[in-house]
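Teaching assistant here, posting this on the class forum so everyone can see the example we discussed in section. The complex has two components, and the goal was to see what a joint structure prediction looks like when all of them are supplied at once.
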Amino acid sequence: MKNDIITLGHGSGAGLTKKLITDVFDKNFNLPTLDDGVEIENRMVVSTDAHVVQPIFFPGGDIGKLSVTGTVNDVSMSGAIPKYILITYIIEEGFSIKELKMITESVQKTAEKAGVKIIAGDTKVVEKSKADGIYITTTGIGFLSDKVELSSAKIKAGDKIVVNGNLGDHTVAIINERQKLELDPPPKSDCAALNKLVQVMLKSGKVRFLRDATRGGVATILNEVAEETGLGIIINEEALPISANVEAICSLLGLDALYMANEGKLIGFIAPESEDVISEMKKNVLGEKSAVIGETTDKFTGVYLRTSIGGMRPLLMLESDPLPRIC
Amino acid sequence: MKDPNNKKFRDPQLINKIVADLQKWQQPIKIMEVCGSHTMAIGHWGIRKLLPPSISLISGPGCPVCVTPSSLIDELIKLKGVKIATFGDLIRVPGKEETLEQARARGLDVEIVYSPLEALKLAEKKETVFVGIGFETTTPGIAQTILLAANQKQKNFSVLPAFKLIPPALDALLSEEDLSLDGFLLPGHVSVIIGSQSYNLLPHKYGIGGVVTGFEPLDILRAVKILTEQIEHGEATIVNEYNRVVNRDGNKVARHIIEEVLQVNDALWRGMGLIPKSGLTINEKYKEYDASKKYEIMLKDEEAKTGCRCADVLKGKIIPSDCPLFASKCTPANPIGSCMVSSEGSCAAYYKYER
């Protein structure tokens, strides 16, 4: 079997992407971390992210908004406060200037709301049909306060695992648009900047580690954490916040919300007895449906789900994603 | 809908009651779930862990992608200058050299669709071949699309027929000597079309009972309970547990559409070979929509020698983890056999849920 070319599977954020990072990128760059954001010096954190979402405009957002929130969130998950963004547009010949204006206004509006500044950028145009409309890359810069030190190494057995709301909304919004499922009302993407919510959480001093649950979904991140820490994770299906709409689409199309990409959801590992953190999260508009979905343990390794009927099953890393260009 | 997500079929109290009953069962029995969606549901809800060791659920040949000969992929890759429209499951099935996904990366025009109607729409712009894979559940929609194409006189559209029928496959399966089964969980969706009476050959010819059932945990557990009761009383009948959607005779409208466009033929099953009268092809009247005639496609019964034991998995002779390639050389990201590709494939379901 030939395996010598890039397929869409290599961009899924799942097993094949990881293989590509190990076999090609890390082999050459010898990266200090495979995380999205990295602390360079003087408590400065940088992160970069490319956006190729299709369709460009979708309920709850557009490629412009997504390119800001995606990078703001990547910087924020390190605990840093994002401040600046650099932006690069790759545009296909023939793209509408009106749409480019709309996207750019959306970039600015999202940046203002998140309290970050767009400070520089670049524009490239390629021939008709050599790209699909528009791609946007953003790089974010943020700063860590002295007290903040988030790391998976800090996670201990018995820690609680929280999410800040409903899972799967972004993916379902995209599927609905792309496949013209015509759900009524149309599901909205959860696309949002989480930097302010993160700062609320950090005040408690009880947060050990944060990740945003984008491609690969909650299940993939839990597996990465279980692998890095050597701890076991048990998730309670009953506690998972999932809307009735998303649940119905999942049964219809054979999908699982735990593997769906989110664009405004984080997973937090926090110290036990952290009800105060949850109640603070719930006061934030992006955390109203926050919930403890499970906990870590040293009694076994790997990630397991206790199903709502009392069964148990392993929750594995996403191996391949049928849905390309979700973000 | 009052209960869109079927909450009442997930009632923990009722489930606990049935589970407690089933836990008392001692005689070792083997029950085959024929349908891939049942395999998925059993894994998804962790149902195997709720059953006593005496009751084993084994997976049957009910995943359409898994039973499609891999030569179909090779034949599709040879098609030049046309668009291939397919359900997503097929895209990572290995052919002799490549998957459709890899061939697409090299320039083959492959598009994933969620409905055959989308494929008919694509034909307005470019000659399109829709890959007609599926059991009785999927077939009527595809047959209806052929009728629509004929109505629109859309010459750019054709379907490569690889449709399969469940009852003849069960017949072939049970005529194998070294298979000992005590009962069947029969497919809910397929039965909506063909009706519960289609399985009468199981008790009449082989003395084995079956329960047509749905996909919620209570459906599946109740079906297992009914089978244990039959076994206990030495009975074998077909019971329709899924009577909220399935009736005795099936959906006459859907069956009429199938009869109008398709005809029963012998069909090639991956791992099971040629099974008489187990497939549907496009009939003479609609032959211009038959891609196998239009492009002269013949499927061959030859599988690459990889050590993959899909064939034994499909027949329920081994469970996926008995295959030496399972979860080592063969994973969903790098599947060797098609049972690992489709989300409904036994190996993929075991990989995801039962390791």
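For the discussion questions: The mean pLDDT of chain B is 91. The first strand of chain B starts at residue 29 and ends at 35. Think about how each of these relates to the inputs above.
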